[in-house]
Amino acid sequence: MSSQSTNSPYWQGVRDGAPFILVIVPFSMLFGVVGTEAGLHIAETMAFSVLVIAGAAQFAALQLLTDNAPTLIALVSALAVNLRMAMYSASLTPWLGAAPLWQRAVAAYFTVDQSYACAVVKFEQEPHWSVPERLAYFFGVVTPICPLWYVFTLVGALVGNAVPSGLPLDFALPITFLAMIGPMLRTPAHVVAALVSVTLALVLAWLPFNLGLLLAGIAGMMAGAQAEVLLERRKEGRA
């Protein structure tokens, strides 16, 4: 393979996505195990992962259903957790919006936390890239992530109760989000949104059905948006 091909946007994406394998494998295995322990058949667990492909929302919905929460609450909670995907899509539109509809549809399906985090940073670093090059990079990031998500969800579902209860697979969830969010806190508005949402999530943790998490997320977005407005006004006042 020539050096030119290994430095193509696609292979740059593969290399940038590869480190997430360390957390995707245990994270997806954990969901497979939890799904079968919650009473889902292997086919149902796999359908959950393939159709939803959003780990945090999957865990939130499954936990609520396991706790016998109303189905409506589980659906609303999963949708609220996944509201970030709408923001991801809006953020990627200036970079990928000119692509054909079918390519945008496929990219929308594979827009997960890791692919978005890598793509938005890289696109800002390489503003001269064409739309095909951006798509190549995006799908390069996805290549080592999503197939392994499916495979190890299946492994976890098959293994099920055979996984020792003391094996700390759940470390993957917080590490994944810390690895993605940390480099993206580039402005005061980002920091404000993160601090407000984290603080309220802890303060409101006593609320039933993860309602505290929903309120914390909404408050964080509002605080970040307000901080952005105030910062823009201050810049205009200095100009």
Automatic annotation (TrEMBL):
Q: Where in the cell is it found?
A: Cell membrane
**Keyword entries, A-Z:** Cell membrane, Membrane, Transmembrane, Transmembrane helix, Transport
Keyword Transport in the entry? The reply is yes
A single Pfam family, by name?
A: AzlC
Q: What is this protein called?
A: AzlC family ABC transporter permease
Q: What organism, scientifically named, is this protein from?
A: Roseovarius ramblicola
Membrane topology type: Multi-pass membrane protein
Transmembrane parts of this sequence: 20-40, 47-66, 135-159, 165-182, 189-207
